[in-house]
Design goal:
Helices cover 88% and strands 0% of the residues. It has 82 residues and is mainly alpha-helical. The protein starts with 8 loop residues before the first helix and ends with a helix.
């Protein structure tokens, strides 16, 4: 097994600082990406809630149509069978 060459403490400290900075930059990038994803998710939730409300309005507005159509067909059939 080979031993790593002896390095001076200053170069070790510089490497550790460089590594620390790289990790810090990576975390900042990930944090920004996560913030963007949360924003997109919030916008999607808002759009979904709006769409659900619109569908509810459409369903509420059209519910009597099938019943009225069935009633008219029944009346028409009753009138034509006499």
């Amino acid at each position: 097994m080979t031993m790593p060459p002896a390095t001076d403490p200053v170069s070790v400290a510089l490497e550790l600082e460089r590594l620390h900075r790289s990790v810090e930059v990576g975390f900042a990038r990930i944090d920004g990406s996560l913030a963007l994803l949360v924003l997109c998710s919030d916008q999607t939730d808002t759009r979904l809630a709006d769409l659900e409300a619109r569908v509810d309005d459409v369903e509420r507005a059209r519910w009597p149509l099938p019943s009225l159509a069935a009633l008219l067909v029944s009346l028409w059939q009753a009138a034509t069978n006499r």
